[in-house]
Structures are given as C-alpha cells and as structure tokens.
C-alpha cells in the first residue's frame, strides 16, 4: 500500500508484485523525471516493513503512450 500511495503522489502508473523469492517486481511508467523519482524512492525508502538490499531496474525504454491508467498492487 505504501508503494501504491507513493506512486500516486509522484504521478506514475504501473504495478508492483511481491514474488515468492522475497523480492518485488513491477513496471513503472510516466515522464522520465517522475519515473526517476519513483526509482529513487524504491531504492532508498520503500515500505516501512521492507529491507532493501539492492535494486535492479531493467528493460528501460521510451514509450509513446502509457499502457496503464493507474498504479496497482498485483497478487
């Protein structure tokens, strides 16, 4: 819920999901500066109960149209 709230505050769309390996996966879309703000939050702050050992952002690309209309938690 903290990640979803932060994404909405920053103004990005996409999703996150906890994996069975104890990691988090997801997708963030929006203007580059907003995506960078979200990446920074995910890398340095995160949810209060999370422990961040490292972050790995991959498959970064420029898109012409957002594929999501909001930010959600997937289960």
Shape: globular
Describe the main β-sheet briefly. 3 strands, mixed
Using only CA atoms, what is the Rg?
12 Å
Helix fraction by DSSP (H/I, runs of at least 4): 25-40%
Instruction: State the strand order across the main sheet.
Output: 2-1-3
Provide the succession of SSEs.
Answer: HEEHE
C-alpha end-to-end distance:
12 Å
The counted number of beta strands is 3
| Total DSSP helices | 2
| Chain oligomer state | single chain
Structural class from helices and strands?
alpha+beta
DSSP strand (E) fraction? 15-25%
Structural overview:
The protein has helices at 2-10, 32-44, and strands at 13-18, 24-29, 71-74. It is of the alpha+beta class and 75 residues long. Strands 2-1-3 form a 3-stranded mixed beta sheet, covered by helices on one side. Helix 1 (2-10) packs antiparallel against helix 2. The longest helix is centred in the middle third of the chain and has 13 residues, at 32-44. It starts with a helix and ends with a strand. The relative contact order is 0.29. Keywords: Hydrolase.
